[in-house]
Amino acid sequence: MTILSILDTAPVWQGSSPSRALRETLRTAPEAERMGYHRYWVAEHHNAPFIASCAPPVLVALLAAATSRMRVGSGGVMLPNHPPLVVAEQFGTLVALHPDRVDLGVGRSPGTDMTTARALRRVSSPPGSEAYREQVRELVGLLSPRPGDPVVAVPAAGGAPDVWLLGSSVENGRFAGELGLPFAFAHHIRPQNAEPALRAYRDAFRPSAAFPEPRTLLAASVIVADSTERAEWLSGPSKVIVAQSLRGIRNGPNVTPEDAAKLHWTADEDAVLRERMAHHVIGDPETVRERLTELLARTGSDELMVLTLVHDFDERLRSYELLAKAMSAGNP
């Protein structure tokens, strides 16, 4: 049976507010639990007027209190922004209050622009450097204390979250495997790397005490509606996000589908947008089920996590509901 989970960025829309976005996140989680979703993760972004998810530990605490069975966690904590001891204490506290329900996904990206990264006093290390690796090893050690350790994350001594390494590269997949950690691949960011990164992870995997077998999760952009035409219309804001990113002008709340429909693209722009949007899984339930089933089979992923950027709250819930039913119907 397909294991389904949700990645939520608490998107802020034109005419709305960060407060409303965060409240919608807290309203969504219990509904997702009712629909049978396995995990609910929140992201870490900073100085982004279109995303309200800036403080994963705070949101995870509220999500855990709003649900009873579903796993909740970060997707992820951008570790170079934080001292590992603080992260271990925060998530150790969450586990102490909600045993066996908390995930700690960690990543390397700053989750922001470099000016804001400096304001966060982020560790300055180029991709592939040893600084991030040492931070991850330090965090894992703090969450698995040994007698005589000079520094202990006290709440974590009684139980630790499941640590997932996030990434979109072959290098990150290999590193997760070497540590014996589960690996969450960001297909919504670099779909072309999915198969080689997951293969590198499995090839490098060394069993650990917590995870004797490799475990993978694939995060993908997914929008489901009753018809493909409606799903395409709902995806209009996502196309605008891609276009703005290409132009380097992402500086306001997400546009509505109505405003997205008013925009016009040149032939060259339209060709690029079609290429960039091709990895988004958008359509009616049967179309989406077929595409996701093929994607999971091709990558060998154990679990699917969906990022669903839909303006209207009720239509967002409808997308999650249709997806859950479609994937369930496709299982024996």
From TrEMBL:
It holds the Pfam family Bac_luciferase. Residues 9-302 form the Luciferase-like domain. It comes from the Bacteria. To bacterial alkanal monooxygenase alpha and beta chains. This is LLM class flavin-dependent oxidoreductase.
